[in-house]
Amino acid sequence: MSHTHTLYQHGTLALLVPGLLDGTITMKELLEHGDTGIGTGEGLDGELIILDGVPYQVDSDGNVNVVKDDFTLPFANSHFAKYRHLTDVNELSQAELDKKILSMTSNNTFFSIMMHGTFTNIRTRAVKKSHKPYATLGETAQNQSIFLKESVEGTLLSYYSPTIFDGAAVGGFHHHFISDKRDFGGHVLGFGGATGDVEIQHFSTLEQHLPVHNKDYMNYDFSDWDILSEIHDAEN
What is the pTM of this model? Predict the structure, then answer.
């Protein structure tokens, strides 16, 4: 039986901030915890979106690749999909969509949004893979590629985290996108208009998995960092 009320998270966004970018879970292991999800590869190697058990990576050249079982990730979310219809929207900006969704549900629990439809003036990004010694998240994020589509049909996959979990995840929405043609996607920076069907899935349980076998993580002192500011600067 799949646990459709559980959100599985490997790693934390906080560990990315100082550049703890080792891949500490394989895609094969991640898929044991869900058929749907998002993440990034070792060294921030592109942006991942998992749909129907297929893990797609948008790399820094804008290519969409299906990654293999041995692909590793420092951070990822996954869950077993069991969405229900929430609402239909027409030409809503990202800010308007976020606001509408929150007006229809609670912001005190984790949930996922899946929206299929047409998106206009959508901007996405993906980061070029880096290697040890890794730079910080802020420095690495400066080496990002930004992609733009005037109009594209595809799927928006999002996770919402309550503010009190800021640092473990991004407090608020974290959006990834992939086109129906599987030729465009990434971490969403914004869009002008979204038209389509919005589905939602709530989680009552967060299963937080930490990379306890990674010495760099286990020995790192996070106290010198303003983790939340760094996360929000890099994510926006």
Answer: 0.95
